Description:
By secondary structure, the chain is mostly helical. It has eight helices and no strands.
Amino acid sequence: MNMMNVVPLQVTGAATLAVVLLALWAAKGGGARASVRAAVLRLDRIATGVAAILACLALAIALAAGLWQVFARFATETPSVWSEALVRTALIWMAYLGVALALRGGALVSIDVAQRLTSGALQRSVEAAALACSLSLMGIMFWFGWSMAQRVQFQEMAGLEVSMTWGYAAIPVGAVFAMIGALAHFLDRQHAELEYAA
């Protein structure tokens, strides 16, 4: 394994460990712990709200561009060059922003059976392990997503004539929102799994 792959894993692992320890410390108690917990939950309310609005906007853009593509292809018999790329990019943004909502609601990495069969310290350990897995995955997605967005900045999306960075930026941006959602779910568990189930 070369250093290019080891450094992101080491940084992500250390950051994950630090955040999980901070979350365990802030989860219970008053004083500074309650202040940290309240600050994270305030940040989460803002971040999750923004992620939800942007994900809905991305879905609306994908829908409008898809409808235009169908209309242009069949009604005017002149297919639109840009609509397919816009639909694809908007759906990518919607999916990556939606991960934050799923993590906040406890619907993405759901360990229901282990969580329901345990209690006390063992239950909290299972929740901490789920948080560590989520943060590690999102940290790696952020690192390599950022790297990919930088690499493709001089390439253009076919049909849209904009930098491919706009498409790849969904990965690190979505990962940041998702990390906030995962941390907030750990500090203030919401059981909204069934609301997100289809």
